[in-house]
Design brief:
single chain; 803 residues; alpha+beta; five-stranded mixed beta sheet; four-stranded antiparallel beta sheet; disordered N terminus
């Protein structure tokens, strides 16, 4: 019987004569049969090596994969050196990898010669994106051995004497794009993608183990995250693995947030949603975000029911492990949750403060022998809880004094509190039913969303303006600093008469250096504020598409909304669907599926969440065919399984099983009349356009809603469309200038085109696009040459906040 053949043979045991023995033979687990007189070849010895290797890998796979100990990854302060500390890990294939050096492995990320040499010239620079920092199995031939060919006429071939096994560090490019240039925004966003995977990304070999993610931009490292991909060694399907991974990453990211806020002297309270999308079901939060004396908390969303309670140190770990089994907190979904903030203390302090709050030991819930009380430790603290709201509500005088004492007691720690998520109270105590029976009124949907949109846009524009002003101040400060340094160099050291001047210049340089540092920090803060405002704007727009029901049931709310003509048309309106024919077509699709197949309605809702309005002329015909042909599930799989919009376009255009019309397929492929010619520029405030043919979509993407401005834009296009040269100049201007200038930009384009000076306006704007204030100033200074009248020039001045 050959080693690779599986056969059935009767058992030779007398009591199993009629039985059939079913076996599974693995050729890799074959051993050489040794006997006297046998001729041994290299194949026989290699077979035994393979057998031992496979058995060792089996043991590794049985133990589980991940980092056993050590292997911490660090990025130097100047972001040049990547260091990996000694440690041990087991790969998904079962391979044990160990870094045994006494000192950390250090890689110079700026050493291009080393990069080229190690990769045989295939890579010369780092492209923008995300890279998995991994160690992987490696073997290296050592020394040489004599080789005696069987045929005397053959030449001796080089053969290694032995192979040395070890580990090597690699940077593996990941297909998922870098979400933002802002570190905190990117890391929080990536948590939703990578932490759902309990293992390694598909780009990483099963012979390697991931230790972190390195972000690269402009061929330089930007930041390192050590917990997005790193997994501790554990068996497969361990309970609460996802929650534990989220908690490790949350602690790392929260530490970065606190360091950044401290460096900017931002010591006050802040909202978790300002920096995070996901929170673990049990974790920590800053003390500054809770004020028990006012019964207020500022960290969790307003719709969360939050309370605070003292707890014994010895009970803390049990409570946390129990809550860690619950689902993580998704701050983007707006779902309600019940949170308890825990103030840990010793037994003596706990009983003392518990009595002062009116609690006696006799009131504790004690389990009978053998009885398991769900959430026993949380039930035991119910009588001590102080309810917290998102606003300030003063508690009783006695409670205020007690909680002030508790706050002083726990304030001696590291400035962090613990919190845990509680299961739904309705499932435990029927509290929800009692509350509703007593006349609790479900809040009406928010009717002031449009007002919020306007306010958030103002907030966004103010943040962008602050950013522009700070950039100008920084440039002026750097100029003064360079001038002072030059004056110091010119002063030299020619005697005592220069010493006083040199000391004065050195003091000036020191002060200017501090100003540069301060302005740089302010600019980072303004950038974060602008990005947060843009995110809030997107969240606010999403709210317009949601219909709230009495139990906050998202699926039921979707169906209810899609069955309501007003709600359905509101969704299409705020999606920016302008074409009346396509609007009616989309409305009919949503109405039909909501009545005939609610499940299909939910699938369509999910698909629309991932397809931007720029692709409406493609997605609605595609959805119509998918509904009629029963292809919604495959279409959803394509959309959900793609890393970005370009992959979605490619997969849909190549999938012949969807049975799409030829013109729709060509549109997804970027060809024909349905091809999309407007693209978003990675979350910026201005859209990057490859054409002005679909003007209404361009204006929607730039956030331009004012009807007067939209009329001015249409008028400008009518003037310039007869001149290809002017159309090209207008496209370049719109690509590079923020939509916050649209209230005066389109009018200026039209005036410049009429006087034949649009190319001069293009040059001015491209040269100053990165500095909005300087851009406006340059336009005003050249308004006479550009044909821009005095009234329009005054509007430029006013828009930029004066000069």
């Amino acid at each position: 019987m050959s080693n690779s053949t599986v056969v059935f043979s009767p058992s030779t045991l007398p009591n199993l004569e009629d039985a059939k023995k079913v076996g599974s033979l693995d050729p890799r687990l074959s051993r050489t049969d040794y006997f006297d007189g046998r001729l041994l070849t290299a194949t026989d010895l290699i077979r035994d090596q393979t057998y031992v290797d496979e058995r060792v890998l089996e043991v590794g796979r049985a133990l589980g994969s991940g980092v056993v100990r050590g292997l911490a990854v660090e990025l130097s302060d100047d972001k040049r050196y990547l260091r990996i500390n000694p440690g041990l890990a087991i790969t998904e294939s079962g391979r044990v990898l160990e870094v045994t050096s006494e000192k950390p492995l250090e890689i110079d990320l700026y050493d291009r010669a080393l990069l080229i040499n190690l990769n045989s010239g295939r890579y010369r620079r780092f492209k923008r994106g995300l890279y998995a920092v991994t160690i992987q199995y490696a073997e290296l031939g050592s020394d040489s051995a004599e080789s005696y060919p069987a045929d005397p006429t053959e030449k001796n071939e080089f053969q290694y004497d032995s192979f040395v096994e070890g580990s090597e560090v690699t940077l593996t490019p990941l297909s998922y794009p870098l979400p933002s240039d802002n570190e905190l925004v990117s890391r929080a966003s990536l948590a939703q993608h990578f932490l759902r995977n309990p293992g390694q990304p598909h780009e990483v070999s099963d012979q390697a183990i991931s230790l972190g993610i390195l972000a690269m931009n402009n061929d330089r490292p930007q930041w390192l995250d050590t917990h997005l991909l790193r997994r501790p060694m554990r068996p497969e399907h361990i309970t609460a693995a996802w929650q534990l991974d989220i908690n490790r990453h949350y602690l790392e990211l929260l530490d970065t947030v606190m360091q950044q806020r401290t460096s900017r002297s931002q010591d006050g309270e802040f909202s978790a949603k300002q920096y995070f999308h996901l929170l673990p079901p049990a974790g920590v939060l800053p003390m500054a975000s809770v004020d028990p004396s006012k019964s207020a908390q500022y960290y969790f969303p307003e719709n969360y029911e939050v309370s605070i309670s003292p707890v014994r140190y010895e009970d803390l770990s049990v409570i946390q492990s129990e809550s860690m089994q619950l689902a993580p907190l998704n701050l983007d979904k707006g779902e309600a949750a019940e949170i308890i903030i825990l103030a840990p203390m010793s037994n003596l302090d706990f009983m003392d403060n518990a009595r002062r709050l009116g609690f006696s030991p006799e009131e504790e819930v004690i389990a009978k022998e053998g009885e398991v009380i769900p959430n026993y430790w949380l039930h035991a603290t119910d009588l001590l809880q102080l309810r917290l709201a998102a606003d300030s509500t003063a508690p009783t005088d006695n409670a205020t004094k007690v909680w002030n004492d508790i706050w002083a007691l726990i304030g001696k720690g590291n400035g962090m509190l613990h919190y845990v998520r509680r299961p739904a109270r309705a499932a435990e105590t029927q509290v929800s039913a009692v509350v509703l029976a007593h006349g609790f009124k479900i809040p009406d949907p928010d009717n002031s969303i449009e007002d919020q949109l306007v306010a958030i846009k103002v907030e966004r524009d103010e943040a962008i303006e602050n950013l522009a002003n700070a950039g100008e101040d920084l440039q002026e400060c750097k100029t003064e600093l360079a001038r002072a340094i030059q004056d110091l160099a010119d002063a030299g050291s020619s005697g005592d008469e220069q010493s006083e001047k040199i000391a004065e210049l050195e003091a000036t340089i020191s002060g200017l250096t501090n100003q540069v540092s301060t302005l740089t920090s302010q600019i980072d803060g303004f950038k974060l504020a602008a990005e947060n405002a843009i995110e809030k704007l997107a969240d606010c727009q999403v709210k317009l598409q949601e219909c709230q029901n009495s139990q906050n049931n998202t699926d039921t709310g979707i169906i209810t909304c899609l069955r309501d003509p007003i709600c359905r048309k509101g969704i299409l309106k705020y999606r920016g669907l302008k074409d009346p024919v396509l609007f009616d077509r989309a409305n009919e699709i949503l109405s039909k599926t909501a009545e005939m197949s609610p499940e299909n309605s939910k699938i369509i809702w999910e698909i629309l969440g991932d397809i931007p309005p720029t692709h409406d002329k493609l997605i609605w015909p595609t959805l119509e065919v998918a509904v009629n042909e029963g292809k919604l599930d495959p279409l959803r799989d394509i959309v959900a399984g793609s890393a970005d919009l370009s992959q979605i376009e490619k997969k849909i255009s190549e999938d012949t099983t969807l049975n799409l019309p030829v013109e729709v397929v060509e549109g997804w492929a970027g060809k024909g009349d349905l091809a999309v010619n407007v693209l978003l520029d990675g979350g910026g405030t201005a859209g990057t356009v490859s054409g002005l043919g679909d003007l209404q979509t361009v204006l929607d993407l730039r956030g331009t809603r004012d009807t007067t401005v939209r009329t001015e834009a249409a008028s400008a296009i009518d003037v310039i469309k007869t001149s290809p040269k002017d159309m090209k100049s207008a496209e370049n201007i719109i690509k590079n200038v923020s939509g916050s200038f649209d209230s005066v930009l389109w009018l200026s384009i039209e005036m410049a085109s009429k006087t034949g000076s649009l190319q001069e306006l293009e040059t001015i704007m491209l040269n100053n696009a990165d500095d909005p204030k300087l851009l406006a100033k340059s336009v005003v200074e050249n308004s006479a040459v550009l044909g821009i009248d005095a009234g329009t020039a005054d509007r430029w001045t006013s828009l930029a906040g004066g000069f």
